[in-house]
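Why run this: before we spend reagent on co-expression, it is cheaper to look at a predicted model of the complex and decide which construct boundaries make sense. The entries below are exactly what would go into the expression plan.
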Amino acid sequence: MAELSTAYEPAEVEVSWYQRWVEGGCFHADESSDKEAFSIVIPPPNVTGILHMGHVLNNTIQDVLCRRARQEGKEVLWLPGMDHAGIATQTRVEKMLREDGQTKHDLGREKFLEKVWEWKEKHGGIIIEQLKRLGCSCDWERERFTMDEEYSAEVTKTFVHFFEKGNIYRGKRMVNWCPVSLTALSDEEVIMKPQNSKLFYMRYELVEEPGKFLQIATTRPETLMGDSGVAVNPKDPRYAHLIGKHAKRPFPAAEIPIVADEHIDIEFGTGVLKVTPAHDKADFEIGVRHNLEIIDVLHPDGTINCPEVPELDGMDRFPARRKAVEMLEEMGLLDKVEEHENNVGYSERAGVPIEPRLSMQWFLRYPQVERATEAVANGEIEMRPARWKKTYLHWMENLQDWCISRQLWWGHRIPVWYRKDKAAELQGAESLDRGNMERGEIHVGSEPPSDPENWVQEDDVMDTWFSSWLWPFATMDDTARAKFYPTSDLATGPDIIFFWVARMIMAGFEFTGEKPFGHVYFNSIIRDIKGRKMSKSLGNSPDPLDLMAKYGADGLRFGLLRMAPTGLDLRFDEKQIEEGRNLANKLWNACRYRLMVGDAGVGGLDAANRPENLPIYAVDILAKLDALAGRLDGAYADYKFNDIAAQLYEFFWSNFCDLYLEAIKDDFKGSEERKHATLWTMDVVLARLLQLFHPFMPHVTEELWTRLEFGTEEFLATTPAVKGLVLEGLAADGIAAAQGQTAAVFETASKTRNLKAEYNLASNKNVRLVLKPAAEWVAAEAETLALLVGAEGVSIEAEPSMPKGTPAAVTPMGEIYMPLEGLIDVEAEKGRLDKELEKTEKELEKSTKKLGNDRFIERAKPEVVEQERTRLAEWEEKIARLREMRKSL
RNA sequence: GCGCGGUUAGCUCAGUGGUAGAGCAUCACCUUGACACGGUGGAGGUCACUGGUUCAAAUCCAGUAUCGCGCACCA
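The model came back. Tokens follow.
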């Protein structure tokens, strides 16, 4: 018999099993298999990323699904990989260069990209190793990267495809500009944040009415050099007379027209807007409507570009704001300043306010919008929790063209070449589309032009999401696709429903004619205990590796899933993880106990050799196990991971450990037959339980599976789940009777322990008990009862004669008396019985009232009425006995 | 402004019409031959509020309050 240590130490066990699984090929997906396919593609983490709690939750869910599918005999592909993360990676490498006093321009594009690849090989993909530590059962032979050669070819092809179809065009538009990353961003990459700003009320003098002023409120005085007009609402009587006249812009001094535009909110500020078409989306549109000049007063990096105002020229936009205010004040044009909360768009990556900026960008008109909308609307693609469907549909109805170009070097370069002789003209052209290609002015193709010396390639690269939206199929070759596409499930966070999920659906239909996945499961967003989002800057994000070191990967996985509500935010508390570790330890010790009481291998997954005579406790636990398996099937079908975890926990901890294991401890002193039946039962329950726990806690279950010799040579990870009930063929009324008796014994034990506690007897103090049996069968279970409550023995007496004041209780097995020498306290016992009586009478009153209501008898379901009658009878019986006991005092 | 979600024990959360639950925390007792990462027994809830439907409401409906999220947006 192998000795097991008293406490489970996960660290070594986990790492070593992971290695054995990989070496054993447990996670390898075989496309030539006849088995039904199950596939998931990982939401590719950033190559710069490190594992955080969100990853842990998301990937544990995927691992559970994959491991469960393997147990169900499916051919499972979990395809892993990483995303090249354009902005994040380029920023990282640029920072490294800066530390050496260099910029990317010193190196040039090609050399810089070499550096990025170098960085990637050396430092990239830490997260992959971390996923392995977590136990993720990915097929690592198929790891993909969005910048791989084959993958990149797919991305380029996609661009060419859409350009030729006319979905892609280039144009000068207002886009979200990140002054730190120096690139355009898509609308989805901008996060609106409420800001405590200031609203400055300033005065512009009227040209036509010298000495009279127009008061204007603004939050951005630093852009007033770009004002090319002043706008009021045409319905605003205060300003009607000014429309068509002019105002004096303070610096650089200019006369700008006053126009009327419906967009102006009469209520806001003074009802007058300074129009800065180059630096605000709404202003741009007003400018277009009224033919106002577009004056760009910002450099791409957010510094002021206005040589005419040297005080401000070259300053950063925020100091410039303060300076501009000072200047206005000095000129006597600032009336007042108000505190004002407004929403400011921030760059998701760089964390700074974006600037609306007019620039030349590439756009995509989304394809397959109708098909992609319909597929989710009609349930062809199912989203869970279902409410995300609405969010998705709402977004699909309001699609704006996707700005797919980024002014970066790291990424898939746009496969467009301009004719050298016309390059300058073409690059500056207001719009560019397939017409230019047809006229031979540009070359758009997967391959460069055959005479490259005559062409100049477009500098921009594509948005990283423009590569990840192909992920479900671009990661697979034709054979893999034939077997594993469409993928079965997608598990991801709701925060990327637009970035990724919606776009994948559109791309899937466009390129494969099929949906990319059948179900989308949106996991919770993890917050800290105060409900704040986890972030590096707040320092409220625990390092999952630390947690795994402390509690084991299994503990982390289980603890997180047990408390992860389906689709609500999850407030993370390390206590939950501790609970996971405790569970692993409890599993370990239950198995340790099994090995202490008998040699391994008496029973296992196969329940065919079931002993003839099973003790009632065996019947009870096996019946509960059979029921559990059925309930878990249902919970898996609904993706209720927290429910699955809670049910496993409850069955194992409460039913198996607290009740069953405590009730069978004397079996090993008894007959060989009884001993064998109990060892067999323990093995059957443990084998099945380890299998059921395995998707959640793969390492400890695999270790125990081996220790208990359940698998001869095979891994638990690849052992198919058993189907069928352990108690198959056993008479239902026999099972029910055994369960009834077992429940009665446990309840009696609980009542009796309570009696002991009320008399301040230590739980390990053996007392003497007398039982007046309520049924014939109870005599046979008296010894077990004694074991459970800590008693020297339980004597069965039909008419016990007890000294007055002997502590007693009414239980399902009968009346229990606890004779205590020299400790009789009649008053105490009276008080105790009175309390019990009072409680029971309250219950009786409730039942009586219910059953006295004719409408209840008439309208309630018959079984409910019947149940209530049974209850009433039970209360009455109990009260009668309690009263009798009370009287005898 | 539009949409979605939450409000149940001190905390984190289960609970879709029929006797209010779990874990943690707390109190008391217990190192009993699996486990103190443990055991036993307690205490702790007018299920946010108001009204309605129903024999019966934490659960269904309407409204209110409050917290949060998403979209749009205020210069």
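Chain A has a mean pLDDT of 90. The radius of gyration of chain A is 37 Å. Bring this page to Monday's planning discussion.
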